[in-house]
């Protein structure tokens, strides 16, 4: 039966769902162009949802018969996801209006995708995991194909859809194997089975391992980790730029948090079985991200490979596991959010005579034509490369520290090597901006929302070194709830 | 004995019609074979005691999906010869992959084990028929324990609907839509009655 108490932890999600429906009605019944008012309302809804999430407090609540969990970890992840979505809606609006492709469904779909992500990070059962994942993915497929008159956009939508459906199939197959073994899909139930709660430890059979690997493969696709990354560059390049900026941040955060919860929860006692898989995926992602990005000329494609590389670094923390590793993952995610938002704000401002440009060479001579933007981009690139005083360095620092604590020396050394390679292409962008002659200057001014996002993200990556405490302690508390025995 | 016979009948026809779906030359025939396959799968569900699933399979897959397929197949102008080109060319590779998958599945299932306390773990065991029918049992679960999943599926379907409209709906000019209010509000002055003499015309 539904109890009233059940509804309290789910309040942010219920609020978002109802608000989404209401905004949809508003959009349909108001006849004039209402992309702007609905975008503003969606940002307000996301803000209100964030307040609701933070008002839930630190306690762990289970709801709906254990299908849904709201704890500190979920709260932290939801905060990041909501922040990323709100910023992306704000950044998209200007683009949609300039390109005259604004439709009110855009912000509403972002809202539903965000709702799906919230459900993902709060999933406590494979069934609720899958439904959250599908709600998110389906909205993202539509957003990728959003610019339906552009061949590239529709192509990226179809590609994403077909490969995403395949990944969902893999995930479901894995889940069905696990269900066949344990007779339950709940995370607690599976955890108890694998932990051998009643004394006798179960040796995981071939079927369990196959199921585990299928689940990891399905989730890795959503993370765009190598070898399941093929879709990412094409989709990132083809989708309209604000959609790409949304793809690169919020869904990644949600998928990684989900991955962490699945790996530490039901599979927490199968570490020996999954660690080698995650280590492999992590190394492969870091290297493919680093080497493939070197030859890119399109900045959106470059960002796709860059995000694949970052996923590799984040997975170092997952492979390390433990409270320290997960804390590193969460810190990295928060920093990744700001670095990517800032970079995409710059990319979205790359216009020459009103026309949008995407080439890396179009940034040439930016230091002379727009020194402020060049400085911001340079700071972001240094941070992405992991140059010490900036936040990006600390993200890498925490995950590699955790890896060394967990005695994963090979992984750490390979990771740092690939980080050196990836520094090459980040620094190349800075070189192009500061030392190349400008072919044609980029348009100015860049618009208020872009300037705001750039300013906020630069401030965060500069300030993190000085005031790391709020983020670090928040991440520590969030990571601690996943390891009740240790804490 | 009798159940076994029925099972082999349903299973055999299902597999046979499945083969016919991919091998028949005419796509309309393929869809018709597909419908037969669905009916036999429904029969298999009935044998398992899942009568609700059986009925839903017939209603949804035969009633809606297969008929939709039929419409699409009939409306699309598919060049059959071109369509079938290369079919044999892919056959060996496809068959090889199929065999490999089959062997792997068998290897995996060969070492299958159930969790020791699996019976206690099953959250919602299927009640026997004298307690409740399938439909009742499912209904009791969907609207209570699993209401969260039920509502979430609703949202997924809503997003699919928004997507369809967003990606395919176009505002067309020059479409004459019926506006009933305008028709009702027409004043009698816009209509003129005239007497026409026979054989003259106006």
UniProtKB/TrEMBL annotation, chain A:
Main location: membrane
Short name of any one Pfam family annotated for the protein: Proton_antipo_M
Signal sequence coordinates: none
Domain of life (superkingdom): Bacteria
Keyword Transmembrane helix tagged: yes
UniProt subcellular location: Cell membrane; Endomembrane system; Membrane
GO biological process per UniProt: ATP synthesis coupled electron transport
Catalytic activity of the protein: a quinone + NADH + 5 H(+)(in) = a quinol + NAD(+) + 4 H(+)(out)
KW Nucleotide-binding (keyword) present: no
Membrane topology, as annotated: Multi-pass membrane protein
One Gene Ontology term of the molecular function aspect: NADH dehydrogenase (ubiquinone) activity
Transmembrane region(s): 6-26, 38-56, 76-96, 103-121, 127-146, 158-182, 202-221, 242-262, 274-295, 302-320, 326-350, 371-394, 406-427, 448-467
Cellular component, GO annotation: endomembrane system; plasma membrane
Record EC number: 7.1.1.-
All residue ranges annotated as the NADH:quinone oxidoreductase/Mrp antiporter transmembrane domain in the record: 123-421
Top EC class of this enzyme: translocase
Keywords (A to Z) from UniProt: Cell membrane, Membrane, NAD, Quinone, Translocase, Transmembrane, Transmembrane helix, Transport, Ubiquinone
Functional note: NDH-1 shuttles electrons from NADH, via FMN and iron-sulfur (Fe-S) centers, to quinones in the respiratory chain. The immediate electron acceptor for the enzyme in this species is believed to be ubiquinone. Couples the redox reaction to proton translocation (for every two electrons transferred, four hydrogen ions are translocated across the cytoplasmic membrane), and thus conserves the redox energy in a proton gradient.
Family statement: Belongs to the complex I subunit 2 family.
Subunit structure and binding partners: NDH-1 is composed of 14 different subunits. Subunits NuoA, H, J, K, L, M, N constitute the membrane sector of the complex.
Name of the protein in question: NADH-quinone oxidoreductase subunit N
Gene: nuoN
From TrEMBL, chain B:
EC numbers: 7.1.1.-
Catalytic activity, reaction form: a quinone + NADH + 5 H(+)(in) = a quinol + NAD(+) + 4 H(+)(out)
Broadest EC class assigned to this enzyme: translocase
Protein keywords: Cell membrane, Membrane, NAD, Quinone, Transmembrane, Transmembrane helix
Record GO cellular component, one term: plasma membrane
Matching Pfam families: Oxidored_q3
Residue intervals passing through the bilayer: 6-24, 31-50, 56-78, 90-115, 146-167
InterPro entries assigned: NADH_UbQ/plastoQ_OxRdtase_su6, Nuo/plastoQ_OxRdtase_6_NuoJ
Localization, UniProt: Cell membrane
GO molecular function: NADH dehydrogenase (ubiquinone) activity; quinone binding
Signal peptide: none
Task of the protein: NDH-1 shuttles electrons from NADH, via FMN and iron-sulfur (Fe-S) centers, to quinones in the respiratory chain. Couples the redox reaction to proton translocation (for every two electrons transferred, four hydrogen ions are translocated across the cytoplasmic membrane), and thus conserves the redox energy in a proton gradient.
Listed name of the protein: NADH-quinone oxidoreductase subunit J
